[in-house]
Amino acid sequence: MKRQKIPIHLRRKNVVILVLCVLFITFITIEIYKHSPLFVGLTTGTSVKANSIYKIVIDAGHGGKDPGANGASGKEEKEYTLALSKKIYELLKQERMFEPYLTRADDTYVALADRAKFANELGADAFISIHGNTFSDSEVSGTETYYYANSSRQLAYVLHEHLIKAQGFRDRNVRKQDWKVLVYSEVPAVLAEIGYLTNNKEEAAMLDSDGQVRTAQAIVNGLKQYFTQGHVK
Ligand SMILES: [Zn+2]
């Protein structure tokens, strides 16, 4: 069978139609997907971070002229928060996916607003403030994890679940509270009241070095889960 030759002007017309079709389909695809998180992430690199390094700010509560709570033994909260924060920092440094920072690495006073500002200016992926709780009734014990912005809620739940499992302290739930350091944070921020320093037994467990490593590892594991799988509930 003899192939019919298509006149050159018709071939050109076909090419023009094809190009217009491709442009039209590309335009429609962009219009449909331009607001999806995946597309935003791919174009700006903010929402989706494939193989990225996550900047984590660990905030040791209190410090310097602000001792925080007095534990059952008389030890000050600022010492506990610094010891635990340093352990979290060291464990995070061993993970390729994390770049950790401390708001204070020694016994110095840092204002609450400056702690949040540090994380904001760094463009941190998470801000975690470490505290030990206190109450007039020494019988009260347990772990409470706080968030303020709804965008921080998921991180609070993931970390809380890991803390409860690792420490075995009473589950006093995730709570929403306008702690200043959380309100000032523009990045996902959580404040963990690890346990009650005013409870004899809990304070001993919190001051124990091995116990601190377990708690630190729980926070690292929680962060890993949060940044790799996201949701737990
Ligand atoms: Zn505190």
Automatic annotation (TrEMBL):
EC number: 3.5.1.28
SUPFAM superfamilies associated with the record: Zn-dependent exopeptidases
Alphabetical UniProt keywords: Hydrolase, Membrane, Transmembrane, Transmembrane helix
Domain MurNAc-LAA: 116-224
GO molecular function, one term: N-acetylmuramoyl-L-alanine amidase activity
Transmembrane portions of the chain: 15-33
Name of the protein described by the UniProt record: N-acetylmuramoyl-L-alanine amidase
InterPro entries: MurNAc-LAA_cat, N-acetylmuramoyl_amidase_3
Top class in the EC scheme: hydrolase
